Every structure is written in C-alpha cells, then in structure tokens.
Amino acid sequence: RCLQAPTAFLTTTSLYMNSIFRVRWRQFWQALTQYLWFATLVPLGVLLTLRYIGTGFDYSKTFENASPLSLVIISAVILASMPVFALGISLFLRRASVSLRDGKLQGMNYWGRRKHIPLQHIAAFSIFRSNSVNALVVESLEHGKIYISDQTERLDELLSLLTASVSEPLREKLAALPWHHFSERRPSKQAAA
After folding, report:
1. Which distant-in-sequence residues (6+ apart) come within 8 Å of 113 by Cβ?
2. How far apart are CA 182 and CA 52, in angstroms?
3. What confidence tens digit (pLDDT) does each residue in 4-63 have?
4. pTM of the prediction?
5. Is residue 54 exposed (0-12), middle (13-18) or buried (19+ Cβ within 10 Å)?
6. How far apart, in whole angstroms, are the C-alpha atoms of residue 4 and residue 142?
7. Who has the most CB within 10 Å: 9, 38, 143, 151?
C-alpha cells in the first residue's frame, strides 16, 4: 500500500497476477477426433477403392480373406478407437494451463514439465507448429521455455499482459508474430475485405 506503482504495467496486471488461463481441451478433443477420422478413413477408403477397381470390381478377389462382418467390425473398432486416442492427447493438453502468479509465468515446456519464468526474465517469443498443434513459445535464457497453446482460454488477455510486461524491443517482435493463429478474435471475412 505504501508503494506507488511507477508503471501502467503494475496497475493493470496486479489484478491478474493470480490468474489461471486454462486450455479448451474439449474443443481440441472434438477437432482432433475429426482430424484422425479423416486422416485414417479417407486414405483407407481410397486404397480399398483402388484395389476393388484393380481386381475388376470383384468383391471376392478384393476382400478374399475378410468377410463383410469382419470389415464392419474392423471399421467400428477404428471409429471407436480414434476418440479414445484423441481423449488421451487432449487430457494431456489439459495440463498445459498457464498462470500468472507472483510476477511469474507458469506453464509447461515441450516435454510436459512445469516451468516458471519471471516476467522480467522473458528473452524471446516464437511460434511452434507441429501436427496441428500450435503454440506461442515464451523463452528465458535462465529458466527455459514455456509453450502456450492456441487452445488457451482468454488467450488475448494473456497475450496483452505478456506484451505489457516485456521491454520495447520484445514488444515489437511479439507484435510481428503471426497473431491470427493465436487470437480468439479471428478476423472475419468482412473485416478482411
């Protein structure tokens, strides 16, 4: 109470210093399930169709070792296993929530371990993309990296707090990153026109 905040950062972020930014894992689960179904069933369907055409449209030659019942069972197992597999990945992503506490950004690194980076030690920002997983990487020379998923709730709020907490050169670099992958307020088609 006896200290006066010398910067706007301290006054604007003091309300958010114990904020938790959770990951929208349910939406990720649904999207990943649909992606896995598409990525599995389309190539499998194309291969089976090509084999069916290649055997002269003869079902018995195409599926000589498989009965129609076994094909239905195999298809059902594939369809049922994809949501289970995607759920496992999504529950792991659920652990990737990010928080701001006591002047530190807390989150997971690439290997799933919890890291803490003091806001004044943030050295760089970069973008990570791999297999439909997008993340903003917050780097510190002394404390490692934290990956912030694009599926994080209130992501715009977190990014504005991070922007306010770093030096001017880092703000410019952060502003130059492709935000359209990380913004909850994606530009509409009308705004782009």
Report:
1. none
2. 44
3. 333 444 444 454 567 899 999 999 899 999 999 999 989 998 998 999 999 998 888 888
4. 0.68
5. exposed
6. 29
7. 151
